[in-house]
Amino acid sequence: GQSGRCFLNPPCVCFLCPCPPKKMKASKIVLSAVLLALCVGISEQAFAPFGLAAGDSAAPFVDEFNVAVTLPRPAVFRSVQSFQDVSINMNGYVVNGTVPTYPGTTPRNLPFTGALAYDLFLAPFLANVDNAKGGGNLFYRVEGSTGDSFDSTLNTLFSRTGFVSNNRLFVTWDKVNHQGTGTKENTFQIALYANATTTYVCYNYGAMTWEAANTEGGSNGLGGSPGIMGINYGNDQGFFSLTRNGAVSVATVAGASNTGVTGQYCTDITGANIVLPCSVADRAPPTFVCPTNVTGITTAFNRCDADITIAQPAFNDNCGVVAYRTGYTTPFPVSRNEEVQFTYADTNRRTASCVITIEVLDIFAPTLTCPETLTAGTPDPTQCRFLASLNDIVTSDNCGVTIITQLSGVQNGTFIETPGTYGITFEVSDNSGNSVPCSTSFVTQDTAAPLIDCAPLILNAPVDSCSVPFPSNFISTVVTRVQDNCDPLPNVTVVARPLPKGTNFVDITTKDATGNQAVCTSVVTVDDRTAPVITCPANQLFVADASCKATLNLASPTISDNCDSGLSATIFSGPASGTLAGLGTYPVTYLVSDSSANSNTCRFNATVEDRTVPTITCPGTGGVYTALDSDITQGTCRVKVNIPTPVTSDNCGGIVITQTAGPANGTSVVLGSYSITLRATDIGKNFAECTFTFVAPDKTAPATICNAVSYDAPPNECTLPLPRLFISDSISFLRDNCDPAPTSSADFGTILELNENFVDIEFIDASGNEDFCTSVVTLFDVTAPVIDCPPEPVEVSTLPGTCDGIFDLGEVTVFDNCDENISAIQTSGPQSGENTGRGEFTAVFNATDPSGNTASCTIAVSVLDLEKPIVDCPTTLSFQSTSANSCGTNINYPLPDSTDNCDDVTTQISTGPASGAFVAVGTATINFFATDTTSNTGTCSTAVTVTDASNPRVTCATKVDIDASSSFCGANFPANFEDIALSDIDDNCGVTDISYSTPTLNVGDNFITVTVTDAAGNSASCTTNLFVTDNTDPDATCPPTATFYTKSTSCDGPVTLSNPTGTDNCAIDSAVFIDFIDGDYEVGSHTANGLVTDTSGNTDSCSTSFTVVDDDSPVTDTVPCPSAPITALAATGKCSANVTFPLPNFKDNCGLTVNNYNSTAPGGTFPVGTTYARVNVADAAGNTNACNFQVLVQDKQAPVINCSAQNIVTAPNQCSSPPVTPPVTDNCGVSTITTSFVGSLAIGLNSVPWTSTDIYGNTATCNKPVTVLDNQPPTIVCKNITVPLVSPNFASTVPIGSLFSSLTDNCPIAAQNVVANRTLLFGYDDTNTPATFVRLTATDASGNNGTCVSRVTVSLSGSVITDPTNGSVRFIGQSFTIRWFKLPGLSPSRRVDIWLANNKGVFLKYLVRNYLFSNLQYAVTVTGVTSGFYQIHMILQGSATEVPFVTIELRNRI
């Protein structure tokens, strides 16, 4: 052998054996006993094959040996976990992961904890195995092939179908010995069978002759702590024990079975719980031994329960126990004989139960604070006797209930008539008989307070203070009663303090000899009768605004008062602050009142003055005024300065105009522009200036004379742009009145045409005046015409089939710069349309214009042979490809014939295969051509077609395996069908189509025929079998989450669940719960796990949860919920009361977790009204209950109204006043205060009845005297007017009503109440002052005055004449202006002359000459004449027609 190994004939495989020579016969080999032991030969009934011949690996003879092994694929366990790497230990166990350190001694019980608490611990026999003696072997192997002969047995054992293993582990401890002395041997095995969804573990036992090693207390393998035989699922996750944790011997286990095969035990570790087979005939319920009854004591002095741990019963079942539960929760309350039931169920849901009794004893006595003495009080305030009571004794107990028992002394609840000390003995005990004694004494004590009553008191505050010193006789004045049950003369005291204005609550205290005291409150009212002090501001000056008025923003007065701060004054008389007032002085009176209706006044003056600068706008537009044409001296460069009156304005009027700069009005100046400044001064001596430019433009145009000129047109042109020397060539005369060198210009964009042209020359002087003259300009033509023959030679081709041609010379055009009607004439050469042979010719043309200018041109003509030869070739040629390996063939064909119209030609090949060449299957083109002597070439084409006549090839796979679909019992046709089923697809020219049907595949055989076709339509076929296998797990569905409810007598409830259901792409075989049985479950959430298996053995698991809910709400216990409100009256002067009452209590079947009260504690202060109180309780399950009740405190105290006398000043713009609500006080708050008075209070004294109701319906009434004062002056708004001087007196009388625009007052007032400060006749004397100011005064019924100022202006100017008929208008002064003299009937853009005549019509002078009457209006100014009657005349220039004149009268001022 090699490397210490040799290979013998089966069935024996040796390890580290001495190997014979290769040529020795096997029958001659002699092996030792040890080597023979390594061969497969032990025939245990339940074992899977093991040993080297079975493919096992063997462990060396080393104690504590362990080895790591990797399974072919992961295996599942405990529903959600998987493992693939495992460790094997010589000491009889296998774990997932790394082998833990062996503890030295075998643990006694499952489940394991600590270092051995692996997720998965497989222990067919966990003990201290010592293999170092060489007395046994450890074999192991893994297998990953699909299927094992034992799979069908597992399907039977666990009621499944279709389980097929593909992941297996076999570990065999063969004849292993124990540590220590002794030679006994054990043989046992682990066999693990798994696939992707299920894992089974079987323990197989042969001869088991020892139980424990020496380290485990054994002697020669017997006695001590026997080895563990079972499965550990991890800490608290479950376990499986064959020895029932020591209750069953190792030998017994080896002689029994749970599969029907002696020494064999199989389990399903796939799910959350370990599942055992149940294939034996016995279907009896589980058996177990209940724990003994338990007696415990309370855990601590403050607890009424005990934490008790109940040992788990030892159980057994032929089919394995899959679920158990108990009907108890810990801790246990103090009770007598509480029963706890254990229920177990096997895999067939057969159950067995047992009951034990739990008793918890209370050993803690109540707690008691034993007082040194007890006080006997006096509950009756009118009697001096004492009540003995133990109600104030404070006790507690861990279980809540205490009982007070009196042993000796004065009896509880009796009266002691004589003061003194009295001994008493009692004890406190609980319901469990625990007690504690107390000895003390009753001491009598007067606890009743005296009785005291008080009366109210009214005082007046002094003038210099808002409070009253505390009266020395206060107690004797207000106390009406003092009384005590034991003290005939109780002490009465009061705290002296200053009493401020208003309502004061003074507490008076009485105390008896024992120290008991009572308090009464006297309501002391302090009234204020002192008026406030008011100081007005200094006189105020206001500046008038743009309307000659000012807003009177009056300053506030200074106010002080003995009681009130922050008082504000109102205006009793005079204008209100914010009033818009004219020029003048206005007296103002302020009125102030304090909160007690005391009032005072002060007075000052408000004056309005004019401080506003006037505005002035100079004549003209944009700061420029242009002189009138009439002011310019005709034919000269001078003008007369004649300035119109500027436009002025002022808030108060009275403006005077003066000139401060520029040429004086009326002087003569040279035409041009001048700066002039004017000043406007108002009656307040405020002034403003404006500056403008006086412009006198020159409006006389220059004079000129023009001459005629002539020019030649440029070459090739029939026109000429106007020459730049045209003006100097034409002008013979030019002159202007002001400008010595006027500017001349012409339109140099003008185009001169042949013969005469008329061109204007424009002349502009320095002032922009224009004139023009017209010059006659003659243009001559000197350019010859242009003749244009076709630019290219004329070429024509021969006629078809001949060598002759006919040509067309085309159009010959002629152009002349001036004449468009000139034609060309052919003078030589061939004519168009002639028939001629091939060759070249020349044609000549001439043209002459009207001016005698001539031109000529020529045309070259050619006859060409352009006809191509004709090649006669066939349209197509067809051939076939018959070779299996070649996609084409060689072709043969003759050359076609060729002909030409003039020459002999020969056919040739230009492109394409020649005859005899190879052509691939498909089409090709052969192009032929022939060329004549003139290089004309004719062509033709022949299409060559080569077709494929060879069939393609294809090979199909015999069978293709396919997994079934997860959604139905079959498979979709595979998209990669051609890749997995077809091969050897070929064709000489290539395959163009592969066709086959694509049906939905059934589980099992599916035969598909495939056809392959090439481009020529040749085809071949084959058939394959698509075999479908179902490997899809079913879908398990557990019942939906459910809720169950507790019984009314306990905290657990009955639970019943329906079995799981499943769906599968094919069919379901079974669906069951693996860890749930129907029964009673405690409050909380629980999980049940189900397993569904389909007909192919595929499985799926599911889980559901259910909740047991406590739905019993707490109920009231010893103190019920009040059904009616608890009532009390509010304390005097307060809006609350102290109310005492008992609180309700509750109980619950599972105990209260919430017990709270949401309002004021009993005995506390409750406000007037209904207080909604609530006791909320809840148990651990969230069930709630509540007690809602009301505490009603009633208010029976009426409000207090202040009905002292009061003065009211009317509001702005009001002639009456609404009643002012008086102050009201109440202990809880005022709801309404109303009056039966309807309307407003008139000016003067009024009596107003008031009724006040507080927020709780208590009422009070009074009559309040109120005086209404009107201190608002009338408002009169003046307006400014202008009056004319009316003949014959030239004076105007103005009605007073025309001087103001409005008259208003808060109370009714008539216009008759307005007077003026002067007469209203305005005449000549007033004309010296442009404006006269009139002050108007309006007085209302209360004597309040309002004033305003009106400006009256006397008109010195004439009226506007708008009627051109004869009439008379009178003017005052030697100068006047007629504005907008309109003349209907005159058309625009006509020039007129206007002159002045005397009353007889005799001409005096022109007012304007040659005026362009463009807008039918004109402003006329007449100066330098005396008083009298005059006429103004107007006549159209160039016409004798005169429009009607206007007669005016001029008079001097008086």
Write the layout of secondary structure elements.
Blueprint: H1 33-37, E1 57-58, E2 66-77, E3 81-89, E4 93-96, E5 121-126, E6 137-143, H2 151-157, E7 167-176, E8 186-194, E9 199-208, E10 228-232, E11 239-241, H3 250-254, E12 264-268, E13 287-289, E14 294-297, E15 305-306, E16 314-316, E17 321-326, E18 332-333, E19 335-346, E20 351-361, E21 367-368, E22 373-376, E23 386-387, E24 395-396, E25 403-409, E26 415-416, E27 421-429, E28 435-444, E29 451-454, E30 457-460, E31 467-468, H4 474-478, E32 479-483, E33 491-494, E34 499-500, E35 502-511, E36 517-527, E37 533-535, E38 540-543, E39 549-552, E40 558-560, E41 570-573, E42 579-582, E43 584-593, E44 599-609, E45 615-617, E46 624-626, E47 638-640, E48 647-649, E49 656-661, E50 668-670, E51 672-681, E52 687-696, E53 703-706, E54 709-712, E55 719-721, H5 726-730, E56 731-735, E57 743-746, E58 751-753, E59 755-764, E60 770-780, E61 786-788, E62 794-797, E63 804-806, E64 813-815, E65 825-828, E66 835-837, E67 839-848, E68 854-864, E69 870-872, E70 876-881, E71 888-890, E72 897-899, E73 908-911, E74 918-920, E75 922-931, ...
Parallel strand pairs: 14-20, 22-28, 30-36, 38-44, 46-52, 54-60, 62-68, 70-76, 78-84, 86-92, 94-100, 102-106, 108-114, 115-121
Antiparallel strand pairs: 1-6, 2-3, 3-4, 4-5, 5-10, 6-7, 7-8, 8-9, 9-12, 10-11, 13-16, 15-18, 17-19, 19-20, 21-24, 23-26, 25-27, 27-28, 29-32, 31-34, 33-35, 35-36, 37-40, 39-42, 41-43, 43-44, 45-48, 47-50, 49-51, 51-52, 53-56, 55-58, 57-59, 59-60, 61-64, 63-66, 65-67, 67-68, 69-72, 71-74, ...
